């Protein structure tokens, strides 16, 4: 979306006409798990958010003459704390909108608070389908991908007739929603899902889980794959691989991840899957800017959740510009069906469930001894029109 000088002038006029003084800041709360197991994800998300606000405002960090003020709140990955902090942001801090959190479990606890206070919550990067599905309300918009987008893209990457798949996932909303969506998507590829294994998020020893997975697959004909969906620590991929699934002709597959996690992927040259983002894949001006600026400021490339945080920041700015206001109802009207440019290219908030439709990327792992992590080479970009993402609202 291009925002012209004339449109900016109109937006400024509307903002001032609505009673806001030019000096009054636009307040955005970033409610996310700064501490805890997903600390790395959270840090990336916040860096990306601030870069997104900077990019979308051409470095001014203001909209219509009003400065943007970002208020950070740490959920510590606790659902009750997420609820309380979001209520505090809306009620005490009087923020215009909020962004976050990292965890799906925390996000599900926060959704009713947005509805209670009648304020917009842009969910980034929590993934569970139910956020924009059965637990959705009209104040929720999500720039992050959902479980169906992860699942459909990964099913396309590995699914084919004569392929048998078993899954290993965390035993909470992220894992179970992800497997449910993957199972549904895989059915359309001709592949067969034969077993589902769920383990606690803090699991360190995967021996028993691996044995059940091996037993489910080892006697199947054709191609046999264990598909892993996991967030945070534990490193199940390497630990399952250490138990030698290859002796049964079993391969491993998973989606993309942050660069530190991709170090472990170097043990799987040629592995295929699908990812939300890898900094070398998208070719567009927003990603070019992100990669250049991030490299200069942080001495390294942007990561998985940096791109997501940037998309959320851009979405917030574009929504306020389009609405010409921070009024919730005007924001909702502006955001429904809104397209905006991100490091991944164009995203679009679907009107029915406010899920951001977006590209995903089928990759193949390549090992480059000069790079610390596994390189994800693009096999195929799966564009918005290539994926039929179900609407799961009530």
Tell me what the structure shows.
- The protein is an alpha/beta fold.
- It has two domains: 5-145 and 281-358, Response regulator (Rossmann fold); 148-275 and 362-386, 3-Layer(aba) Sandwich (Rossmann fold), CATH 3.40.50.
- Helices cover 38% and strands 22% of the residues.
- It is built from twelve helices and 16 strands.
- It has helices at residues 5-17, 39-56, 79-91, 104-117, 147-158, 173-187, 207-217, 236-241, 259-262, 285-298, 304-323, 328-335; strands at 26-32, 62-63, 66-74, 97-99, 120-123, 140-142, 163-170, 192-199, 223-229, 250-254, 272-275, 339-342, 345-349, 356-357, 360-366, 375-382.
- The strands form four sheets. Strands 2-3-1-4-5-6 form a six-stranded mixed sheet, with helices on both faces.
- The protein is globular and about 70 Å long.
- Residues 25-366 form the Leucine-binding protein domain.
- Belongs to the leucine-binding protein family.
- One of its GO terms (biological process) is amino acid transport.
- Pfam families: Peripla_BP_6 (PF13458).
Alpha carbon gyration radius: 21 Å
Provide the CATH superfamily of the largest domain: Response regulator
Strand runs, count: 16
Structural class: alpha/beta
Number of domain modules:
2
Seen as an oligomer or otherwise, the chain set is: single chain
Organism: Oceanibacterium hippocampi
Family: Belongs to the leucine-binding protein family.
Keywords: Amino-acid transport, Signal, Transport
Protein name: Leucine-, isoleucine-, valine-, threonine-, and alanine-binding protein
